[in-house]
Design brief:
Elements: E1 23-26, H1 32-43, E2 53-58, H2 71-83, E3 86-92, H3 96-104, E4 108-109, H4 123-139, E5 149-152, E6 161-164, E7 168-171, E8 180-183, E9 187-189, E10 196-199, E11 209-211, E12 218-221, E13 224-227, E14 241-246, E15 249-254
Parallel strand pairs: 1-2, 2-3, 3-4, 5-7, 6-8, 7-9, 8-10, 9-11, 10-12
Antiparallel strand pairs: 11-14, 12-13, 14-15
Protein name: Probable septum site-determining protein MinC
Family: Belongs to the MinC family.
Keywords: Cell cycle, Cell division, Septation
Length: about 260
């Protein structure tokens, strides 16, 4: 015999599923000292760079032969990430020893659903939606603002930093050595560029750097960087140039009229 009981929704809370946008740190080495050094080279002393964004520690590219991190190493890793205001909340790994170590320090195993995968809808529904959207666009034309661009028109001295979060940046004044220009999109520099310059800071591999006078001490796109330890070629040093990614290589090319 089936018995139906009356239900009552709680007045103070609800439980619902949620897909959250998360950053992912693809950890490729167990050498945490090297990791710390490379993060310093990439982000400097920018303690507010990630603004508390949630993060998945992803071991998908971790070498199979590398030893698992110890509890102390996991703790040190989390402290390093939090020093840049990342908020590690989850772990993704095939190896049980890595999962066990990560969960022991409070990370949650990340499933595909947790990472917000999109479920495809039936084609018939998609066609109907497209038709409705087209009708709305035809009947009610609405101007759409383009992406914002940050404009820097004052010189940047050593120790100063500009970050164009979620947009491009146009630099109209000199960037001195020790200064930093960071953008999630492209960087356009119309004055001498002598500091640290980072485009595609959050992983945009299509971002580029355009400079009329390229003398940067560090150049980076989507985490791939080059420092002044490798001098710029004569054909681009102090000249108009563009920087872009080709796979995992930085291409620095002269800009010609």
């Amino acid at each position: 015999m089936t018995v139906a009981l009356a239900g009552r929704a709680p007045a103070t809370f609800e439980i619902k599923s949620a897909n959250l946008p998360l950053l992912a740190l693809l950890l490729k080495s167990s050498d945490l000292k090297l990791l710390a050094a490379e993060m310093t080279a990439q982000f400097g002393n920018q303690s507010d760079f990630f603004d508390g964004e949630p993060l998945v520690v992803d071991f998908s590219f971790y070498p199979d032969e590398a030893p698992a991190l110890t509890a102390l190493e996991f703790t040190a890793l989390l402290q390093l990430l939090r020093s840049y205001r990342m908020a590690p909340v989850a772990v993704k790994a095939r190896r049980e020893d890595l999962l066990a170590g990560a969960t022991a320090v409070g990370l949650v195993p990340a499933q595909d659903a947790f990472l917000g995968n999109v479920v495809a809808q039936p084609a018939r529904v998609e066609r109907v939606v497209e038709t409705v959207v087209q009708e709305v666009v035809r009947e009610v034309p609405t101007p759409v603002a383009g992406p914002s661009t940050l404009v820097v028109d004052k010189p940047l001295r050593s120790g100063q930093r500009v970050y164009a979060r979620g947009c491009d940046v146009v630099v109209l004044a000199m960037v001195n050595q020790g200064a930093e220009v960071i953008s999630d999109g492209h960087i356009h520099a119309y004055a001498p560029l002598r500091g640290r310059v980072m485009a595609g800071a959050r992983g945009n591999t299509e971002a580029r750097i355009f400079a009329l006078n390229l003398e940067a001490e560090l150049i980076s796109i989507a985490g791939i960087y080059r420092t002044s330890e490798t001098p710029l070629p004569d054909e681009v040093r102090g000249r108009p140039a563009q920087v872009r990614l080709d796979g995992e290589k930085l291409l620095i090319q002269p800009l010609k009229a």
